Each structure stands twice: as C-alpha cells, then as structure tokens.
TrEMBL record:
GO terms for biological process: DNA repair. Residues 30-224 form the Helicase ATP-binding domain. It comes from Cohnella terricola. GO terms for molecular function: ATP binding; ATP hydrolysis activity; DNA binding; helicase activity. The lineage of its organism: Bacteria, Bacillati, Bacillota, Bacilli, Bacillales. The keyword DNA damage applies. This is DEAD/DEAH box helicase. Pfam families: DEAD, DEAD_assoc, Helicase_C, WHD_2nd_Lhr, WHD_3rd_Lhr, WHD_4th_Lhr, WHD_Lhr. Residues 274-423 form the Helicase C-terminal domain. InterPro entries: ATP-dep_Helicase, DEAD/DEAH_box_helicase_dom, Helicase_ATP-bd, Helicase_C-like, Lhr-like_DEAD/DEAH_assoc, Lhr_WH_dom, P-loop_NTPase, WH2_Lhr.
Amino acid sequence: MIEQLPFHPVISEWFAESFGKPTDVQREAWQSIGEGRHTLIAAPTGSGKTLAALLPCLDALVREKIRSDLPSGVKILYITPLKALNNDIHHHALGFAEQLDARAAGNGGEWPGIRCEVRTGDTSPSKRAAILRRPPDLLVTTPESLFLLLTSEKGRKILENVDHVIVDEIHDLAADKRGAHLSLTLERLAYRNTKPIQRIGVSATQKPLERVARFLGGWEAAGMDEDGGAASQPRPVTIVESAMSKQMDVSITMPDLNVPAASREAVWLPLLDRIVQAMEGCRSVLLFVNSRRLCERLCLRLNDHFGYELARSHHGSMSRERRLEVEQLLKEGSLRCIVATSSLELGIDVGHIDLVIQIDSPQEAARGIQRIGRAGHAVGEASRGILLARQKSLLPELAVLGRQIARREIEVIRIPLAPMDVLSQQIVAMTAMDDWDITVLHRLIRCSDSYSRYPIELLESVLQVLAGFYPFAKPLLDWDRMENRLSKRSNTAMAAVTGVGTIPQSGNYPVHHLDSRVHLGELDEEFIQESRVGDVFQLGTSSWMIRDIRNDRVYVSEAGNRFSEIPFWRNEAGSRPFVLGEKIGALLRELSERLVLDEEHEKESAQETESNERACEWLGVNYNMDRLSAGELVALLRSQHRSCGLPTDNRIVIEHYRDVMNQTHVIIHNHCGRTVNRAWLLAIERQFEQLLPYRLYGNAKDNGIEFVLPEWDASWLQLFNQVTPSNIEQLLTEAITGSPLLGIAFRRIAENGLLLSRSFTRTPLWQKRLRSEELLRGALPYAAHFPYLREAMKECLQDYLRIDELKTFLDRLVSGEIAVVVRETPYPSPFAANFIADYVNMKLYEGDGLDETTRLQLLNISKELASRLFGGNALGNAIDREVVEEERRKLEETDRPPANADGLASLLKTRGDMTANEISRLAGEQALMWLRQLQERNKAIALDLAGDGEFRWISADEREIYEGFPESPESLIFVLGRYADRVISFTEDELCDRYPSLSLAAAKLAIEELLNKGMIERAPHAANEEERLWTSVKVASRLVRLSIRQARHRIEPADAARWCGQIATMQHAWQGTQLQGSDGLRVVLERLQGLFLPLSHWETIVLPTRLKPYRKEDLDLLCASGDVFWIGRKEEGEKEGKIAFFLADSKVLYAPFIKDATAQTSKHPDLLKRIEAGGASFLTRLSRETGQAPSELLGDLMDLVWEGTISNDQFAPLRVQVAGKQAQWARTGSGLGRWYATGALLSEGDNLDVSSGQSTDPDSRAESPVLEWTHHLLKVYGLINKDLVANTAPYSWERFYPALKRLEEWGVLTRGTFIRGMASLQFTTRELGDAVRQPPLAADSAITVLSSADPANPFGVLSDWPQPSRGESFTRKPGSFLALTGSRWVFWIENNCKRVYSFPGENAESAMDSRPSESNAVTLQEQADLLLSTIRAVIQSRKLVKVKIDRWNGEPVFGTDIGKLLLQMGAERDMNSLVFWSN
C-alpha cells in the first residue's frame, strides 16, 4: 500500500513510485516546511535531503497555481555555492518536472506544470534575457548571480514574489565571506518582497547546528532595548537532524616505498601500483587530490600506466563544458575514473561511485566526509573510501582524520563576523537601485546574522570612505549629511556589477581553441609568463600547443601525442586546523605510551618487536590502517624518538643541528598547523630582529617551524620564551606591518569593497598589486581612522594568523601544561627532514630576496656617499627644469575643467580649500553658479580660514576637519597633506602664508609629522640637502619619473667604435693620451684596478699601450713600495692564470676578492698557514723552513697565487713565470721579493658580506662596496651593463641593479641604449652620454691600434661583435687588432696582419659593406697611408721583425688595388703576399 504523503496526489504518487518510503529526515522536514517554518536540514549524503527541502516547496507552488492566477515571477530560489552543482540540481529538477508532467498526463487530473531554469555566470546573455522575459517557477542560481539580479530593475522585479529560498551546502557558504554576502542579499530580497520568505538550509556537514540555523534565519525586530533603541532577536529556525547513520568505510594505506626507484619516472610506480590494487573490482572510481597540477600529473601517469584512457581530470581551471563532458562520461560508464580537486566535492551527481580514493590529507574531516560521501550515494548505501598517503609523515594526520570521517565527527564552522568589504559592496549595490535613509539601511543590515551587532558609528566610517571623504579614494555614492540619505552617482551601478562577489579575481589567462574559439579552461599568469608560442602543455588529459599569447587570453590547438608540460597554478597551501593538530598530538602521545618510548632503559629487540606488533594491531582496529601503513608509522615514531624526541599534545621538541654549510637549523616540532605556526614564526622573528643585524630565514609548516641562522648561540633559545600571551598581539601587529600579509589582506578587502575598481576582462596581478600599494600608501597616514586598514589588520590577526588559537597554545606553554624539550642533533631528525626541501627550493629560486628598499639600506646607498664619489654637481642634475615647470603648470591648472556642479564638487575634494577667485580661474565663471548649487545641496560650504574676510570653499563633509585645524593632528595631516599634493613644492613660510592660523613653529612641527607619515620629502629639485624645500611624495615621484623619461628620450645610441675611442681615452690607451714614468704607471693601475687579465697580457699589451715608454723596473718599485699590489686567480680549466692590480688604499675594491679566496679550501694549507703566521718571507727562508728546494717550493707558491691567498711585493716572480724557463726558477733565490698572505691586508674589523656586497657592521656607514664598484667601473668603461658586471665585478647584477636605479633617480646616471644595436640595459653618466655623441673633431692622421684582447676594447664585453660578412673571425686574441682614427674603426687585423679588413664606414655595421659611403669616403692613398701606420704600430707592439699580409678584405692582397699601391710604397712581394720589415 502506498504511504499517504502530505502533497498533491501527482507528487505523492510519483515519489512513492520512484523512491518508495520517505526517510526520517524527509518526514520531519516536510512537516516543518509545510507549517511555514524556517528549516535547517542536517542529513548525511544519500539520505534524500535534496527532496526533503525541495518537494514541499514544489507542492506549495503547484497548489497555489491551481488555486489562483499567480503573478509572474520566481517562486522558489535554489542557491548553491558552485556553478557545477547548480547545473546538477537544475538537471534533477527538470527531470522531476518532466516525470511529474508525465504522471499528471497519465492521471488526467489538473496539473499546472513546473518551469525550471538555471542562472549562473556561465549562462548565455540570450538565456538570461529569456529568464527576465518569462520567469521560471524555480530558479537555480549562485549567491553572486542572485546579487546581480537584485542589482537590476528587471531582475529584482521577477524576485518580488519569492516564497521559498533553499540554500544547499550551506556549510560551504557560511564558513567564509560568501556567506556574509549571501546573508545580506537575502535580507535585501526579504526587504523588497511583498510577503515573508521561508528559508531552508541543507547540508551533510554542519556544526554547531544552532549557529548555522541562526546564520540562515537572520534577525528580526523585537521591540525596544534598554537604551530606547530598536531591539532584535534571531528568527526562529527549526532544526531537522537525520537519525539515519551513514556508514563510512574508511581505510588508510600507502604505497610500498622500500623498493628503490631506478629512474625519475619510477618514483611514480609504487603509488600507481597501490591505486591499481585499490581499484580492483571497481567499475567507477573518484580520485581526489589537493592541487590542479597533481590532478593533471596523476591523470597522465595513470593513463600511461594502463595504456589507455582510464581517467580524465576535473578541476576549476577547466571550462564548464569540458567538466560536464567528463561527468557525463563517468555516468554513462564510458570512463572508469575521474581525478578531481574540490570541483567534485559538493553534492554533484556523477552516477554510482564504487570507491573514493583521497591522495594525501583532505585536511578537514568535513571535507573528507563530503568527498568519500560521493561513493554509495544511494539511500542506505555505505560509502567506501581510502586515504592514501604518499609520504610517511602524513600518516598521523590521516589516522586521526580517517577515524573522524568514519565517525562523522566534523569541525566547528567559523562564521566570519561583519566583514567590511562585503558590506561596502552591498551598500553600493543597494544605493545603485534606491536612495536610502541611513537609519533604515542600518536596520536592514542588522537583520543579517553576520551584522546583527554592527554599530552605526562603524557604518558611518565606511560610508565616509565610499562617499569620497578621503581624497585618494574615488567616491562611489553621495551622502547628504543634512538629510542623512545616500544616493547614487554616475559610477555607482557600474562599480556594483563589476565588483560582485568575494571570490578573489585571479590574473589567470583564459585558454581558447584557435579555430573554434571554444573556451577550454584557464592557466596561471606566471605559467604563461614562462611559456612561449610553440610550447605544449596538458590540460584536461589533452595536449595543447600555444599558438598565440594575447593580453587577455591564450589561443591553442591540438598537439597530438607530443611531450607536454604539466601546468602549475600558484596557490597557498592549506593549513591543518589547530584542533586537528591537538588530536594528532594526542594520538602520538598514546602511541608513545603503547610503544613504551619514554622509558630510559633500552628494551630487548624481542620486546620492541612485540610492542610494535601490538601497536600495529591497535592502529588497524581503531584507525583502520593496513599493516604496511601502521608499520611505517610505528617505525617513523621510533626513529624520531631516537633522534631527538617525539612531539605530542603536551610536549614540543626544539631540535638544532648544523648543516654542511655550517648554518644552524632550529626546528620547533609541534602539530599546531601552518596558520598558527606562521603567527608564532612572525612573533619570534620580530624578537630576533632586535638582536640580529640581518633577517633570518624562517618557514612555518603544519608540523612545526624552522629557522636557519649563519651563527648560533644557545642562549638565543630564551627568545622563544619571550613570546607570551600578554605580548603576542603587540608583536604580531608590529610584524604584520613589515610582512606581505597586510598588503595581501588590504588588497583583497579593497577589491571586494570596491575601493579598487574591477573590470570584466583579465587584469594582471602586478597591476592589481601596484594599484593596491598606491591606495595603501594613501591610507597609511590616516591609519587610526581609515576603517579598511583597521579591517585588514583585524583580518590578518584573526583569519590569516588565528591569534586566538596561538594564545591558547601559549597559555598552555607558559603554564607548564606543555613541556619543552631541547635537543642538539648531529643531523636532521625524520620530522626535520620535511623542512629540507623547502629550504633548498628557497635557496634555488628565491635566494636571499629582499625588497629593494631593504637592499639599498644594506648596501649603504646614500646621497652623501654618492655625492662624495660622483661629485655634488652630479646629484644636482636629477630633476629636469623643464619637467619642473611643466608639472607646476599642470598643478596650477586642471586638465579636465569641471562641466557641472558635481564635477566642481570633485575638484573641491581633490584640491581642498580654494577661494572663489581660485575656483573661477580653474573652472570658469560658471563655477560661481555651481558653487551656489552645491551650497544649496549641502555639498559645499565657505569658511573664513585666514580671518581676512576672504572665504575658502570646501566640501561640506570636511567641516569638522577644518574646524579642528590646526589644533587637531588629524586635521593637520588631512589639510596640509592635500595642500602638498597640489603644489610643486613649499616652505614653512609658504604654509604660514596659506594658513595664517598656523605659526612658524607649528608649521615646522607639521612638516616633521608629514615627514614621519611618509607624505612629504625634501624636494628633489632643492638646491642642496640643507634647503628646507618640501614636496609631496606623489609630486616628487612624478618629477623623478618624468625627468628620467626625459633623459632617456634625449639619448641617441652611438656606434660601438665611438665608445671604443671613449673608453681608450679614459684608460690612456688612445694615441696621444699615454702617460710616462712611475707616476703615470700608478695612474694607469689605479684606473684598471680589479680587472683580472691574463698574466702575459700586462707587460705585452696593456701597460705598453698606455705608457710611453713602459719600464718593468717602475712596476717592481711600485709593488715594493707597498703602494700597489697584485692578486692572482685561475679558474678550473684555464691554461693561464690572471692577475689584477690594486692600490693599497682601495680596500673596498679588493676586500671581496680576498674574502672569497680565503674562504676556499687550499691545496697547500700547511704552507699557507706558515706564511700567515710568519709574515712576509723570502723564498730562501721558506725553503729552509719547509725543507723543500726553491724550485719545488715555487710551484706550490704559484698554486697559492692562483688561489688568491698569497702575493709578492714584486712582480718579478710572475715575470719569470711568463718566461717559463726552469733554469731561471732555480736562480730566483731571495732576490725576487717577499711572499705574504693576502688575508693580512684585511683587518679583523672588516665585516663585509661578499655575496651581497654589504657591510655587516651596523656602525659602518662610510662606504658602500657596490657604490664604489659602480663608480670605479664607470671610470674604467664609461658605462655599465649586465655583461660587464658579470665579467669584472665581485658582486652579481642583482646587487648592482638597485643601486644603479637609485643613482638614476638622483640624476647621477642615465639608463638607456648607448651602444647602437645593443638591446641590453646600460647605465652611464649624463656627461659621458652627451660626450660620446658629439661630432668627431677634425680628422686626425694619428691612428690608434688596440689589441682585441685589450680591456679598452668594448667588443665581446660591453657590446656584441659585428656580424662577419667577408670571413672575419672576430675574437679577443692577442694577435688580432682594431685600428681606429677619429671616431672611425678603419681596420680589423687578424693573426699579426696576415688578414686585414677595411672599415671605411662610420660604424662597424656599415663597415661590413666594403664600399665607402660618400660622407666618409677616403682615397686609396689615404687608406694605404693609414694601413702603413697601423702595420708599424703592430710591429712595434708585438716586437716583430716583419709582418706578412696574405689577404685583404678576404681576397689575396697581391691582386688588389691597395696591394699594388703598397708595393710602390716599399712593401716586398712574397708569392701572393706582401712583407713589411720593422726597419
């Protein structure tokens, strides 16, 4: 017999035929809903909760349609958190409706029919329009789509008669800001509706039920409170909880990792084998993973392992169409397995599932229940799931979660309280539709459970920002304070519809098919930045080739079976809940007791084996762990205990050890979870900042915290104890301001709160960050009053750091409830090993990354030092006078004069107080009429600020600020900060003139306060550092930026040959600039300091080119005097060692080389120690002390020379090394100088970090190694680029670049392309940039011949060689030469003149064409004369008797015109060659 149901006969018969008897939860829910009560349904998956909520609503709809002609509109709203779940519910609802129609048609009774539609972000515009024209009875939608419907006239019209709202998976919405957003949306819906709306919530995992019920129902008026205000109370909600117990069969396992992997691919085999074993006998399997990248990788590996498409991937970065296709394939039985992320977690029907496998931890029991609940979805059927750990370290967490899932023990939901950004978004949307009295608005807001205690004062502070009170925040609505009403502006509606929702907008690139333009999914912005056209990647089990990368999308095409890269998606890893960590600690404590780990005596092997077996058996019975996983867990705990101790719920273990680099790793082992550990880490780091002059490395994970320090003192452990419950909030507040957390929180709040405008297209993340940073900088001076900044701080502490949970933990720690064990270990414990990979990755990919400001501070970059090095005049050229005048004009005028009264109101807000004359000058005569209009509308008022009867006009909302000026600090910051933004610069006297109520002393104090707030700085165009001329930081930034741009625009690149001439002149290698004598030699060596050149080049190429004449005795005397010394270096694989010279007083230049050399392991440590201890020693003394023959000992000494650890006070020993004659070595004796350790040149106080180029002595601010090296390289080469730094400097380009940028901002350097054809970034001084482009002087017959190996040759170091076109072999070899005259490169000579190429053109590129250009044409005779001069120079420099020319421009020289002319001029013929003799 069919059970009588309380529904229309058609519905009752259909249900009985389709489902049989109702479940207990269905009966209770139908009664509650039928009686019109708000109802919360809590029932496990497979208990029929969807029909428990939906069926009575459909019955009421049908009965009412039969009774009367209902007005058009939606009657039932079904809200779900996911678009995919919407589609699933809509599919089921359509099926129900069709079956009911068929049943009614068969019975022949009256049946009005039920129309269903779905409306999400994926719904097409035509479908949306159709819904508005002909509204359905049942609308399935998301919170965001409902918000949009209420924010349009037609949309809210079809929602005026809603009777029922069903919120599915309410636990998922309530737990974050989307819930608060929906709560306010429901109150807006109820406010507009003609009758009360019944609310129904549905979920399988919600706790506590009473709290979720209050969230669902909201609040209602309840008379008056004690203070005479409106009181409120929660709306009554009936809770229907299922008595049916859903059986969850959960087991825990892991792959057998004991088999060593033979290759990189083989590491996957144990995991794949274990999955295959688990899937045996299963027709359909869901495999859940925690990341999209792992989803794609595992899917690919599974299919490769099976040899056919066993599995398909399913995640949020795939398009909706492809996800639906995968779901349908599984339903039909065409697909055996889906590898999914959380995209399939919530209630989506994919047909019958035999098994769910969760790879690694689901991190929460509720999430695990949702996922495993996908299996056995039918009523009364058990759900079977496996938790599969890829690593042993995850086993404790999986054991606890597996037990919780099996017992359905879910976590308490944390419902966010009063998020300000959500409220801002809703207020803007509401104002876009209607004008609002603020009292009424406040009453509506407080009906939402999330805002039930929201104070009116806080609401007004939010409205103040939205109404544009702060000049840096764009107004989104108008607030009439006299009438206390809100009204919309022209931009209100657009801001509301573009900024909908709280889901953070990603910078991901949409992926579209090149031909069909079908949307396939999306890829991470960073992944696309690292990809190129032609790259192949995998998405959704298919391989795609990138064909086009555009600003807002990527086009791809199929790539067949080619190798494909697995994309990555950047996302922060989830955190273990604190409560779960406590349970893990309790499990480990119990296991420790069962394994008798804390007993002092060593147990016999047999006893240990027996206790292991009992523990494994206990884990199998109580935690459903298989034998392998239980055994691995027991082995892990024993190993950890032996290493340093086992952390539990009542004990933390602090382990410290030294690694191979002598760095100390300190690990605090605990189970608090990543979020709480990150908070504790920040607080401890804050303590260390007060102790150490550098920032230490710290990393927080679920299982503890790691610090890495270059030095360690055990007493520093006391710093951990100094973080207590009483000071934790202060420490974290201070730490947050210096961490990225505040910037991230503020950006998200500003985006959601519409302070940062959104758009319908993709916005790159870097643009969002820049806009957010600008807004944050504007807000920081008003930090005490700007509500969104306070909200960001609160969100950091409560949500990102969970300060309350950390306080609970610290309370237990301070009280002694949690013990602390400290252990020093020789190597990392098993638990500590989990941190090693993170530290290695940081070193590989992040290095010692610091923000640019910090780097500049550490590099000692200061204007004073730059002025000393480059001269005060260089810094005075930073700001272009034309830029200053142009910016002054822009500030005094306005680019967009107001067109109406509202435009004038905006002008008043941005420019501040102005007289009527000032306003007329900016906005025209009609401005006075607009002023009267604004005054009548209470939007502008006039004040007599100067007391002279001339009124200033201000925005009406600023009355209180100006009334408090100048006594109130807030008014000073507001009024003077805005004044600074609209003038080019100002002095204290000018402030007093503008604001007579301000005394000179008060003006000086105000300047100091604005400086402290970072709102102003000394004007960059001030005459000097003493002039008290001030500029807004915004104006100063524009002046610097525009001046830099102006300087760059003036630059025209010059040919590399011109730079060669310039560099040769600077190095005294240009003909006519050579020096003489020992003083000249000292100048040359000073200029070439730090250039490591091959030993043989110094006295054959470098010095003879620059000194006329060069005498070796002068070099020996300079070295012997101690004024100059040399250091050697020889890299592995080099045939010849290199030598660099330094002046003794240039410690900042040579110190990094010596530091680096002395840090390396020596080949002859005993000999080096002897020299270090004995001081400078002659060879004979060393030979006598070591017992080695001088000839033997010299070989060892040269090894030390090439290590850079010793030197000699003469150059003669190296000269002998060049000669290479063993006999001379034997005769060196004691006459070739004394040997000494280069380390002696550094004193103990020389604290220099070689890798970073910074002084580690906090008191050493007199010099900056990087700045000194910048100045030196500019003197040597005239410009700097990345290649030059890599070839010559002891520091990396990453260390140089911030200093170069800052010098450019100060006007010392200019950045651009100075060498034609070179695209690399180059820096030079403005003077050199101008000088090198000057027209060459009158033609000079003198020719300069440079060896291609000479440091004055920029080719191959600063610039690329020209492309050869006639067989040239461009290289830096001693036998090749460049011949230059004036600004021209005239000849390239190879192999000591055997091959000669002429360059008659102005530059090297044009010179590749052997035909002379008209402007630079030379006669054959002139060319022959130049060549003869060049040949003489080569013969002289190489000390040759003769040279022979074989080829000219690639042709045999004898047959050329110039060859014939040279014969006439004295050359001799030798076959087809020409010979030139030295005489």
